[in-house]
Write a structure and sequence with these properties.
This protein is an alpha+beta fold. It has helices at 2-30, 188-236, 242-321; strands at 36-40, 42-46, 59-68, 71-79, 84-91, 94-97, 99-104, 109-116, 123-131, 139-149. The two termini are 72 Å apart.
């Protein structure tokens, strides 16, 4: 009993696994051909062997084959249609009558249509023929025949190509852009900034010089005016004794000495002012030079710090990549 149950389970398992695969293969075979109507030659064989049946003389080859929605239909024209009692084609587990599309009694022709599950394989069929109308000849027989279609004339369906998935591209590493080094500012600008002080000092010197010139001009005018007045007084007054003339000469000499002293004082003042202006220019130049030196030191120090930071970052990156 146990052996029988095991055997039956194996058979059932084989049936359930093989039958769906066979159905899938047949469907796949039908779907291999492109949809359309084609002229396909065929031969009619006997039920066994490769011998041709005489039934082929009563059929028109080639047949019209229709491929539509993964199904294949054969349309065949029968001669002497009055002799054909039935024409059945294998369908599933049995045989089914073919579909009659047209029946031309005048020409004794019939057009039939039947489905072909797999046109690349032999198609089994059953016919019953009774020959009538021939005096002294009787023919009444039933045959099992097979159709062999030349499926090489049917074009195959185009295969839908799957879009080729491109390989995942690796991200290209971005090149490390070096940080631009700050360009040190030229010290000329600082000198240019500091030069207005010297200009101001020069302006002050020019102002002092103009003042001294004005003073000298005024003193000259005063002396000229005094001399003019003396000349007028001399011209108007009568001549006095020689002693008075001597006194006047002494007074004129004293006035000239005063004018000379005023001019000397003015020159001393102008020389002092020019010395102060020169000292101011020297101090401005010294401060500008010290400022330029300090900025240069700051720029050099910042460049060294930035270079050290860049070297440290590059070392850290090479360590991480390793």
């Amino acid at each position: 009993m146990k052996k029988n149950t095991v055997f039956t389970t194996v058979i059932l398992f084989a049936l359930f696994t093989l039958l769906p695969s066979l159905a899938i293969e047949k469907a796949a075979a039908a779907s291999n051909f492109a949809d359309g109507e084609y002229s396909v030659p065929f031969t009619v064989l006997k039920d066994t062997g490769n011998e041709q049946s005489t039934t082929a003389e009563y059929m028109v080859s080639p047949a019209k084959v229709i491929v539509q929605n993964n199904k294949i239909f054969a349309v065949v024209t029968l001669n002497n249609s009055s002799w054909w009692q039935y024409f059945k084609v294998q369908a599933g587990g049995g045989f089914a009558d073919v579909q009659v599309l047209s029946n031309d009694k005048a020409n004794d022709k019939r057009v039939v249509k039947f489905e072909v599950k797999d046109i690349e394989q032999l198609v089994n069929a059953k016919i019953h023929v009774i020959v009538t109308g021939i005096p002294g000849f009787t023919y009444d027989n039933k045959y099992d025949i097979r159709f062999k279609f030349n499926s090489s004339t049917i074009p195959l369906a185009p295969v839908a190509e799957k879009p080729a998935t491109p390989p995942a591209s690796k991200p290209t590493p971005k090149p490390v852009q070096p940080t631009p080094k700050p360009t040190p500012k030229p010290a000329v600008t600082e000198k240019a900034i500091a030069t207005p002080k010297a200009v101001e000092n020069k302006q002050a010197v020019t102002k002092v010089e103009t003042k001294t010139e004005a003073k000298s001009v005024e003193s000259k005018e005063v002396t000229s005016e005094k001399s003019d007045t003396l000349v007028e007084e001399k011209s108007t007054e009568p001549t006095e004794p020689t002693e008075q003339a001597k006194d006047e000469a002494k007074s004129e000499i004293s006035e000239e000495e005063l004018v000379a002293e005023d001019q000397a004082v003015a020159k001393e003042e102008s020389s002092e002012v020019t010395k102060e202006a020169i000292d101011a220019e020297v101090e401005a130049d010294l401060t500008s030079e010290s400022n330029s030196k300090s900025t240069l030191l700051i720029v050099i120090f910042s460049v060294l710090i930035l270079g050290g930071a860049i070297i440290f970052a590059m070392r850290q990156r090479t360590r991480t990549e390793k």
